[in-house]
Amino acid sequence: MSTPMPEKRSEAEVAAFFAKLHADQEEWQRRAAVAQAQAAQAYARLLKIAETSDTGQASSVALFLAATYNGRSYPYDLYEMRSLDVAIGDDILLCMDALRWAKEDLFNLVPDGKSRIQAMIKIWKIKVATDGNDAS
Known about the structure:
- With 136 residues, the chain is mainly α.
- Helices cover 61% and strands 0% of the residues.
- It has helices at 11-52, 56-69, 86-101, 113-123.
- Helix 1 (11-52) crosses helix 2, helix 1 packs across helix 3 and helix 2 (56-69) packs across helix 4.
- The protein is elongated and about 65 Å long.
């Protein structure tokens, strides 16, 4: 039994393929930049909530922020979003969009982000998950 040979493509088809690939990559870079810019603002708003409030919504925000810092140690239950105000949920979704592009850790998008997140985790007493299912 012989191995099938790939279909030969013309130079024009190959050039068109690579031109589309290049255009797609430029569009993805543009989308990633927009997502990151929006997430930087959203993340700052969420961090302010977690740092200055002690409500149930702030607790959920703190859990989400901890997950963006280290998702394996601090998993976030997406059903938490059902209890949040629309604006807070929208900010979380903006952050999640930036996360999928993986250009930068979100905590690096805000001034002193790493130390602020670490302090927030301590203030909220968010525990490291031991079984991968519960971080609070």
